[in-house]
Design goal:
Blueprint (H helix, E strand, L loop, with lengths): L8 E7 L2 E5 L8 H9 L9 E8 L2 E7 L7
Parallel strand pairs: 1-4
Antiparallel strand pairs: 1-2, 3-4
Length: 72
């Protein structure tokens, strides 16, 4: 018999050289809605884009990437 399992979402971001793992506030929300939710705490997310998902360690990992603060 075939079983399906929903993988939990995990959101990754870098801020000031440190990588953070952000939990999923609500699995029903879109990835963009989660990014806007966390933008109140991490203002760099206002100009970020979501990359992913990538399946790692039985989770769906999305990465929030921004080019703010980098040169070149």
């Amino acid at each position: 018999m075939l079983q399906t399992t929903l993988l939990p979402r995990v959101f990754l971001m870098k801020d000031k050289g440190n990588e953070f793992t952000l939990t999923d506030p609500d699995p029903k929300w879109s990835v963009e809605a989660v990014m806007h939710f966390y933008a109140n705490t991490y203002p760099t997310l206002t100009t970020a884009k979501a990359v992913g998902p990538e399946i790692t360690n039985d989770t769906l990992q999305y990465r929030f990437e921004t080019t703010m603060g980098t040169k070149g």
